Amino acid sequence: MTQNNVAGAVDRATDSAWFERAARAGHVVSGVMHLVIAYIVGRLAFGDAGNADQSGALAIFAESSGGRLLLWVAVVAFAALALWRLAEAVLGGKANDPADRDDGLGGWFDRGKALSLCVIYVAFAYSAARFAIGAGESSGRQNAGLSARLMQSAGGKFVLVIVGLIIIAVGVYHIYKGVTRNFLDDLRTGGGRAVTVTGVVGYAAKGTVLAGAGLLVIVAAVQADPSKATGVDGAVKTLAGLPAGQALLILAAIGIATYGVYSFVMARQARM
């Protein structure tokens, strides 16, 4: 099948209203997950235990009445959003906005970003499915285990440093996108003051947490201590040991919750 035929098939698939609704539901599920993570971070601020990452949020659903059914809904929604991002990677822009497509350098950057998001949402869908069948595991434990295996060689440590730098770069990009308000380009309407403030705070908060997680990965590689490479959970819990740690955790909870609220905005107003 030629490239034009592939693009045509993808175009026809994304014309489906049901497909678009399912993909938008992925933003809703992402918003709920961030709100639950914010709730866990808030509890950490007051001395409670918990994993402040996607696995901690999914575990709460898995342990609640009817939570397994909701997890399967999350699997479908995340999978649909992953497929939509894959469609954007094929087309080089928004699937239902031909004017947004670009075959130049900008288009290839958009393809790379869409493909990266596709991988992330596939991972979310996989994690939700694992928790739905009762086989979920802490993301922090998984990250630490993988880091320990990589640290057995110099090449593995180098890979960890590269991964840490990539995560930091993604975090910095989130902060940049929030501060410059570039996220408004992703919306069908310009939003209003409330949407703008929510996006700025949400993107800046998530970017800061991601950058912190990436920095811990590098520290873990340099110190040969895999226990430090526990992802977002480790980055959040590191705040507890800093001066004014409780206040920082509360601020982190507010920021992550704000990103969750912005995800609901994306579900309704995102250019798809």
From TrEMBL:
* Segments traversing the membrane: 69-87, 114-133, 154-176, 247-267
Q: Name one Pfam family in it.
A: DUF1206
Q: Which UniProt keywords apply?
A: Membrane, Transmembrane, Transmembrane helix
- Its domain of life reads Bacteria
Q: Where is the DUF1206 domain?
A: 25-91, 117-181, 201-268
- What is the recorded name of this protein? DUF1206 domain-containing protein
Which species does this protein come from?
Gordonia insulae
